[in-house]
User: Fold this.
Amino acid sequence: MERRLWLTLLITMCLFAGSTGRGLEIKQKDNSPLYNHTLATILVEYASAVYMSDLTQLFTWTCSRCDGMTTGFEVLELIVDVENCLQAFVGVADDLNAIIIAFRGTQETSVQNWIEDLFWKQLDFEYPGCTDGKVHHGFFNAYNNTIVRSGILDGVSRAKKVYGDIKIMVTGHSMGGAMAAFCGLDLSLIYGKENVSVMTFGQPRIGNAAFASYYSEIVPNTFRITHEHDLVPHLPPYYQHLPHKTYHHFPREVWLYSMGFGFLIYEVEKICDGSGEDPDCSRSVTGNSITDHLSYFGVEMGCDESSKCKIVMAPSLASYGKVDEFGNFALSRVPSKFILKSKTEEQVSDQ
Assistant:
């Protein structure tokens, strides 16, 4: 009788612990980087601008989204993978003294179709160098096995040769956020975790708990911004009772939401716990809004054209580009600081 009582008590305690809904605690050091609101409002503009279809305006940073807090930015490398409908750029922001890398999210004719596809993505690819770490092959390949990776690495290398050992900041929205995460992991292994930071907006889950823990160790300076009821951060689904066999977000989430009554409404930026799956942040609400997915900090996210993979480019840009056999291309330019330095050295030598 007494033994049965203890067994009942033990089962009750286990059920209570499971009902709290908390995800696995991801290993993260106590000296975690501090969230910077101003930086977030700057990087969201880069994550928005990379969606632009007019490549001439984007490459010259004269597009309708290429102003505000990003004025003066110089694009050094613009990569367009026509075959897989991917787009990204590398450039230098003097005001941040940093290399900025931004990835475009999905440019499907119907965002709804892409979101529905997220429900069925399986953990089917073992991430190299990460014990038990699994991701979806599509997420992994979009960055690692397209022209995007080589273009990014080339742009970063050229920028560092001219600007020196400046920081690297990687950003992206939606699927672009997933690519930004893989890029940040790649660059941290190359240049060191202290030199790379990642900030994404409305990013889906990309791997399991083992991968999330590995990622957090390699790229500790990472913030995932989520917004209200944005449904994409809820996908692919997370099952709290199968934490080792399901997708799992890496930390650290910052959840944007509104609270108040009547006219007294104010915006909140809640910094979430180190689990990556804080039940008191975006997981505390239903992810059912595409509208919340397409706006962050009041900035419009998503494509400026409704047609799939449409691009516009002036013939004059051809001299900056190199095209592969599949029609994919990258536009590259020499950093203006290098040109200015070369001219100064020529003038000095002439004297």
Remarks:
- The radius of gyration is 22 Å.
